[in-house]
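Build the 3D complex.
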Amino acid sequence: MARVYNWQIGREMSYWYPESRPRRQFAAVFDTNKCIACQTCTLACKTTWTSGKGQEYMLWNNVETKPYGSYPLAYDVKLLELLGGQEWEGARYAGRTIFESAPAGERVLGWRPNESDYAYPNTGEDDCAGQIDRGAAMALPHMSWFFYLARICNHCTYPACLAACPRGSIYKRPEDGIVLVDQGRCRGYQECVRGCPYKKVFYNPMTGTSEKCIACYPKIEQGIQPQCFVNCIGKIRLAGWISTPDKARPDNPIDYLVHIRKIALPLFPQFGLEPNVYYIPPVHVPDSFNRQLFGPRARQAVEAYRNAKNDPDLAGLLCLFGSTEMLVARFRREGETVVGSDEKGAPLVRVPLKEPVFVRPAFDPRTQLVRINCP
Amino acid sequence: MRASREFVLAALAGLTLASCSRAPQRTAEVVAETVRSVPLDPSDKAWAQAPEHLARLVPQDLVEPRLMKPTTPEVLVRALADGANIAFRLEWADEQPDNRPGAGRMVDACAIQIPLRREKDLPEPQMGGEGKPVQVTYWRADWQASVDGRGDAIRDLYPNAAVDHYPFEAKPLESDPAAREEMAKRYAPARALGNIRSGPRKAPVEPLIAAGPGTLTPAPWQGEDAKGLYAKGRWQVVIRRKIPADLRPGERTAVAFAVWQGSMNEAGARKMRTGWIGLLWRASQ
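Done.
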């Protein structure tokens, strides 16, 4: 085991390989408050990448309803239980990561789902955290809650799948940090499936190899966001590049949301993988739950997000989500407009902070007809 | 009648059986008797004349991920050789045959390992080492099922699977098998890359070479073959490969064995194995 620095837990930790950060790191921010679980992302991924034999059960992208939803079944709570109760000391994680709590003979603390664990891809859908008493649904605020958590591979800085593979069949691309399974080298031992805490590597019984989300790297190489991003009708996603905190740029959208405003947080940072998909936590969920999923900064993130209406830079950047197919590397606000640019500063998209309102009268005097809204 | 015929055969092969007992001779090393042609079928009568070596298995507990608890305790090994090939018959107890791969499902397997070169200093018994490679011939129960006729469709693994549609089975492609295959490969990257583990196969066995743990690499196919049968709680597997190029009749090399039990979640490094065992190719008398 080597010693590496994980900024998400504010300390050094043990990892199977020495620290080797890519030249730049693919990253994403998902706004959980905007997700409606339409699963368009899931289908966009499915039709693009996993329509083959042996891939029938695979969902490289899935959307689960929290608190009860999970795919595969109980992927998160099983590992939390194995890990046991752990503590944060402020922003520093005082507990043990899955690398530091690996049992004798193992590279990481993990478990492998049974095939039946994949049989309920949308279990818990729309289930509330508690009972709804008679009439309670009509009262505000609602005392019960749920929210949608969209998930892809986190293309972690310290991938557990990569650490767990005894053959070195998994690699992290130096040019963009995307984590891939070498399909020519994989021998299907499923150690990666066991190791990944997010269970985002899947064994293909027809090819005998394990497969995972590839962050649509052929699109990334063209400067285009992945399929699950550009097909998101809720516009909850933004793909880009993340810096380490010491090199954060205020004009980099991901850096701004993660490092500067700190409203986007990693999923289960306590596992120690430094995952690179960041979530804006749901504003209506108890802090204790958000804290377990997103770490100790969840409350401040929710407060900053709630205040976005008074924060034109932040509000403007949130308007860039889902506004262009291209990867937005830079942004700036120009008055009431936010501009997304590529890395050289060439504008890609301009979005108003407030969409103009058009009123269409019910009666059209030109045609002397009354318009109706129903289709 | 049968016992006396066995006796004649055994005598012809140069064995020194003390009696006409059907219990095979136990040897301290693996002795490959010379026969005219090595059989592939584990139930072939020719195996009766081969002495038996009982190889004790130990857990692979040197490199992570390790096997922490012993499972299969031993494997019975017999060997026969002809002018070109050597075959090993491995037999071990396994409560259930595991030949269906799947998420979280491992399959039964076994392998033989021989040093690439006969040298005084043997390679590390566990997958060899740098500059001291080993040859591995690996058999798997799911490949055996495939060779025995199991189809290449998800319903062959999961009979009740519901499949809506595969893009490569779309109507417009029906008359163009090449285009259809090309599209199917897009959704099977391991097959597109020619990963020999990942397609329908003709032999349930794979030749490999390794120079240390984690370095296992497919080797050129040289007519390796195998046949595995499961009956009465035991696997019987014959693995046939070319005789090591630098081994002559009457000479010794070394051999090691490994067994994986799918139901015990064994795969890759999680296996039961032996150390090096002497392998004598006994010349025909």
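The two ends of chain B are 24 Å apart (CA to CA).
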